[in-house]
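Standup, Tuesday
Yesterday: got the pipeline producing structure tokens again.
Today: sanity-check two examples.
Blockers: none.

Example 1:
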Amino acid sequence: MTEGDVAAFTHLGSTVRGALSERGFSTPTAPQRLAIPPLSAGENTLVIAPTGSGKTETAMLPVFDHLVERRPEGLGALYVTPLRALNRDMRERLEWWGEYLDLEVDVRHGDTTDYQRSKQAEDPPDVLITTPETVQAMLTGERLREALADLSHVVIDEVHELAASKRGAQLSIALERLHDLAGRMQRIGLSATVGDPDSVGQFLTGGRACEIREIDVGSNVDVTVRNPEITPEDEELSGKLVTDASTASHVRLIRDLVADHESTLIFVNTRQTAEALGSRFTELELPIGVHHGSLSKEARIDVEDRFKDGELDGLLCTSSMELGIDVGRVDHVIQYQSPRQVARLLQRIGRAGHRQDEVSSGTIVTTRPDDTFEALSIARRARDGEVEPAAIHEGSLDVVANQLPALVQSRGDTRLEDAVETITRAYPFREVTEATIREILGELHRNRIVWFDESEDRIETTGGTWQYVYANLSMIPDEETYEVHDIASGSQIGTLDEQFVVNFAQPGEVFIQRGEMWRIAEIDDEEGRVKVSPIEDPAGEVPSWIGQEIPVPEPVAGEVGEIRAVAEPQLKQGADAAAVGRELAARYPAAPETLAAACSQLEDQVESEAPMPTADRLVLERQGRTIVLNAPFGHKVNETLGRVLSALLGQRAGGSVGLETDPYRIELEVPTSIATSDVLAVLEDTDPDHVGTIVELGLKGSDALAFRLAQVSAKFGALKRWQGSGRMSNERLLSALENTPMYDESIREVFHEDLDVDRAARVLEDVQSGELELITHRGRTPVGLGGRSSGKELLAPENADASVIETVKERIRDDRVILFCTHCHGWKAKTKVRRVADQPECPECGSTRIASLNPWADEVVQAIRADEKDEDQEEMTERAFHSASLVQSHGKQAVIAMAARGVGPHNAARIISKLREDEADFYRDILSKEREYARTQSFWD
């Protein structure tokens, strides 16, 4: 041992040093050498170090040492983790130390029994492992508050994960409430990756002093990017796996990498991909399990244990496995498709190599040029430690609304200034004003959640406070799920989101879960259960979970643009894709054939004499009604620019403009009246200062804003008051809640999560100043065509996709509609969609202005005939006339679109406006809108 090694442990007392010897800890790990001195001195400390490097012991040894010296009467330390599964692991790791040191270590979360809770309140453990939500619950209990008054240490595990979420914003206020109870306490944050340690340290401490102790994670990571070439074996495999040869090559490469290592984690970006790949490995009878959040707790623990015991060679998993759940030793990590962000790659690859100072090895398996270039940028940035900053939620008003009732419930009558002081000490809320908090209290008062006496600036509880607090311990929005149960064994195998059940689930239908095929036997809507039986038929539909796409940051996308800029002159001078790939190999970790395959797209671009889109050059290409702006600025910037373009072009055209974005392209479907010069005019003439206003105006009628507004309003207790007892449309909800804190928070959240107004404004400034070159091109280009539509991985069997589309088509054709003439108001008929003529006409007056209405919409017909002006009827009448206009323009196609579930005239117009190659795409778009409706309908019913 060096002198530095010895020095770290000498900061600990003799009792803990004896435990170290007993446990076999002879040499401190790197984070222990760095962090034990300030931790032992009682300093607030953020420890950043790779997974498996002993962070937990780094934090807890000084805490144990302090608790041994000063036995607490109540709770001495809280260890807060974002996942319940981590609670279980932490207890197993810390119990030995507790037993040796005669300190009680216990766990508390949502599933803790009433008996255990009561026991913890009466006789608090010395160390309690818990979740952020359970901390909220503990703060309301009188005896637990007494126990918490003795608190001297709080450890926040995976602090980066919480810093970037509303759960973390809520926890930051809870930490200040703990401070009010216990006085100064040491705060310790643990993470494998943090892009901006200073701001995460401030988040942890509430702006107080914080020591940062960081191990360079990137230097300990060895990543290779591989895009497999298709082999004859892949052609054979594709037939067996009911997929294309390209996807078969991905399966084959993953299979071979797993075979080359002892224990491999295979990360994917969505649960759907995990299930789809899992079904392929099941078909090949390979020992690879599936692990994600929609599987039951029992199923997850089962695969974790089987992987730990060596029964499984690989584990297909999603982001939950990033957070250090103990699955034993991992010697390799595979990332399927680009991980999208540097922090995610480091978290995931960091799971490999749990021995001290061991390099973590990983492979990113990519699927197309965008994917490969993006992965190269991320791998290079990971190696150089260029991690994205945590996107802290600054001033979330629904979190303030959530915490005010909790404060008054736990404290009793509270002065406004005391509540303001506690809330604004929390780092994310440091700039929230008293005026804003008054406004929030006014809303809570109107909704009878708290009583706010403005004359005396006093907050009191009401009859609804207690119920609200316990129903809103979490900032995670409630989402309906159905439990999936094996009908033979009765055991739960997982869950399905409501919209999957609504749109796809019928008795007899087949789907994939846990990598296995299941046939639906029965659906019990009352109990929220789907009963299934296992089958061996390989043709099934993959469950469609709702999940936001991980946004690619602007610097990563910008580097992809830089790679293109480096390649372009070489290709123009006669170098081929392989030669350019060899040049890139000096900077990026990839196999030569992978680099050559990606560069072949750029070679095609040069050979087609199309301009190359780069970080300094935008290329606007057009074919027919499709316009693509090639712009390598990442998801959020492109989504913002896309909304500006679609809003302003839609105004010019007097109709809707279709919009799809990815990190490298903004794709628009425009009416024929829109010229390319109109698009250029928007980019060259729009005032950059107006970007935020334009986007907000565009959001006002959107389902996305209404969905967020419903979730935020629930935290204010406002939704029921505005909704009343009847159905409430998106438009009415948005209208009712405009100019309220709920509306402001919903806009803030959409901007925070999905958009980047400042950077989009700078792009317009750079275009207008000439710093960014803007070139137009007639026709589509290889790079422009390389986006989402060509890159969709057909992991679901093709025949299953076709059968789902056919099922949707048949269902809609059998649906009934009311056809009503809005010209003469005389003719009305109720019929099946399949019997509607290609261009419906009124048999009485010959008009083609025929509204297509729901079969229960007789009241709308009566209102139109009676010319009623009631507010509800007026809205429905307007929709009827909009419907008639669509049917007049598009005939039966409009009737089909509007017969779909939750697809009104507005969405039908969007669906119809898209230019498509085949009818199946039309029904896919309908299905997409139905899913969106199913996800949000519970807020309006």
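Example 2:
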Amino acid sequence: MEPMEISTPGHAGFATQADALLRKSFTYQKRNKSQNCCLLITPLVIIGFFAFVEHYLKQMSAQRGGAVVEIKKPAPWPPALNIPSNTTRAVSSKYMPFPDLPSPSCRVSGNCPATFLLTGTNQSFVMTIAEKMFPPVSTEDPSDMDRLVLATSVPLFQPNYLVDAAFEPDSPSPLYYLQSKCKANASIPYPTRKVKCLEGLNLWRNSSSDINTEIYKGANKQNKIDNKFAAAFDFQNTNKANFNVTLWNEPSTDADILGSSTFTRLPRLVNLASNAYLQVLQGSDTQLLFEFIKEVPTIFSINASVSKTVDFFLRIASFGLLLFPVTVLLSSIVYEKEKKLRIMMKMHGLRDTAYWAITYIYCLMVSLLFVQFFLIAGKLSGLYFFTKNGYTLQSMFYFLHVNWQISFAFLISTLVSTVKTAQVVGSTFMMLICIFSFFIASRVIESTAFSGSFVVLVEMFPGFALYRGVYEFQKYATFAKNGAGVGMQWQNLNDPGNGIKKAMVIMITEWKIMLSLAYYLDQVLSSGSGRRRSPLFFLHCLRRKPSSQEQYLQRNSSQLFPSNDHSDVAQERQKVEQLMQEGSTSYTAICDNIKKIYPGRDGNPAKAAVRGLSLALGRSECFGMLGPNGAGKTSFISMMIGLTEPTSGTAYVEGLDITTCMNNVYTCMGVCPQFDLLWETLTGREHLYFYGRLKNLRGPVLKRAVEEALKDVNLFHGGVADKHAGKYSGGMKRRLSVAISLIGNPKIVYLDEPSTGLDPASRNSLWNVVKRAKKNRAILLTTHSMEEAEALCDRLGVFVDGALCCIGNPKELKARYGGYFLFTMTTTQSNDTEVENMVLSLCNNAQKTYHLGGTQKFELPKHEVRLADIFQLVEDAKSKFPVQAWALADTTLEDVFIKVTRQAQATSSDE
């Protein structure tokens, strides 16, 4: 059957659909103004907070002696070695099975020695030097104090001038002096505090490689080993004529955190080795004195320290702020997918191109507004991070970031299906990327050990390119603050070491890749857009071929699931075949042997949801589909509205094949789904205006159509039309869904149980709307209300176990499958037999269908009895025994439905 030509002027174009969607989005977001205001105010609050903190700290520092402190005479501090604490000093373990290491029991008693590893080409000479490293000291001779080898595990705190916490009188950490051997609890009074004796243990190793290995094993956190050595010496080719030494010194973690310089301890190690070497050559009286450590006189800027701290946390906050909209955008996109609003819009004609274009533009506008608030807040705050860097350069960089961010949100939205999941994914991404940026990206950028290519590779991780840009902006702002520049301008992009240009290239590349991947996954995963497409849908010449199981099912579906067509169903099939041969377009919808078969899985047999349905719907016909739950009605409707693809066969709507031209079919159909799909914060009027625009209604025509639709479904008066749909009752939502399906004069309308939840008055009003609407269009209606089916439908079809069992108008079905009167009589139980005999004497083929407590019900074939005979039977019964009640009724549509369903199910079970 050739698809008929459709008139494009009657269908909404891209501009019209984009306008409708943009208007809806602005109206929807206007209702969410509190959320949007919070989003835009967030940068103002956070950046304002940092500006206030910096101003407050500067004022506090000025009140305490000014912003600058002159240090003319820095305090001298005695030199000391940096050794591990008692709990981390090297001991023997299964990972370090060296017999010369101390036993782990020393940690319990608190007397583990500080171990020094030694190596060199001349072992005997080296060990002789080692014996001189920790000379014995007499506590009684004050002159020996100069020979003390002091040691501490406290890191050296150095903000701008030396403050050695180890020598503070109230320091909780012990201060030691090293000896080859210590007496029990030996200590020496020192000018500031007592100094305990600690054994210094020198151990020989065969090579520097062995020392490297041992030190590495001692610091292996993976195996939960914390065996640290005080230091190591490689005297290499040292002898009496040559002194050559290499030092190992492990900085403590605490020192790194506090920002202290552990290298300030290193000169004492050099002095220790030099003294020992000289004493071996010249005697024990020879000594290189190392009296104290002090910094040069300097000027310490408190403001600089405060600004440095504020800048550090401002970088963290700015980076997190710029990633903040990801969660908001992601939740907004996924909301329409979770509530099935996107597929609802698509079923009313909205094309994917218009949806993605307007959604992208809307997200871009929100994100750019957020970025401008971010930059404006920075300008007003006076922070150098914003004021010194070029405004246009910052705007361009953040513009690229915004586009990258939207494409990333689109990509993630194809993989998640609920708003809660989207919020969790967005928040987790933002948290993890912040952590990884500061602990990985910052170190890679600042380190000189990594090549430029490796840095670029790291920045390709999502979000790291943004961090590189923020890092560069802060670096140039710091230069400007210190008088070394004017901040970052366009000409600075080519500066050596400036990585912002590469970061921009990375963001542009990732933006395009992620946007393409998001579109591909959206089509393949069917994440809210309707049918899934083949993974190779972009290769038109390589369409997906059915699997062997699917081909078998298609070829042998009639044998696997035989159809037992009755005469009326067979006639309908013949009519469809004739229409297909003629290529007729006089019918709105023609279903040509359409099937839906789900292949068997996990050992279960194949399931036929629809077994070759053939049906023709006229232009002004309302066809009612009746059937028990699980009969296959939903599967059939899903194929017709484009949610699933037929296994075989097809259907034509206005001459358009649903398997190849579904996008065009959407423009001429209306759908009232079983569950109401509405925006909770849009009003009923706004819903109708939106869907009316999608159907290409404009100006006065649109306004008149909306007003009439509201009046038809009784939502016009009392201000109901301008209430939020979320405040509607269930019946009001149902009426609005019906009005949406009918607006724009669609050629075919699918009504899935439209009167569910309506009161009798509203139901009758809705029926009148449907009766008027079917004059110019075909309507396919599913319902469980026989009264509704009889009132609305021109023809009915009973659908059981995936197949039509009968087709006809209500009167024909009742005549064909009814054909009997229902006679009921209630007497005393003692007269039950007599009543039954009287009925059988009147009609030999009477069937008793009910008997309980004196009440009996019979089916009397119409062609065998007359009404007068039935009334005469009642009079005769009254003269013989008391009759408490009796009734005579014609066959109802409900009786027909039950009978046909039972027969079909019985036939199916026999097969």
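Quick observation on example 2: Confidence is low (pLDDT under 50) at residues 1-9, 253-261, 544-564. Residues 903 and 909 are 10 Å apart (CA to CA).
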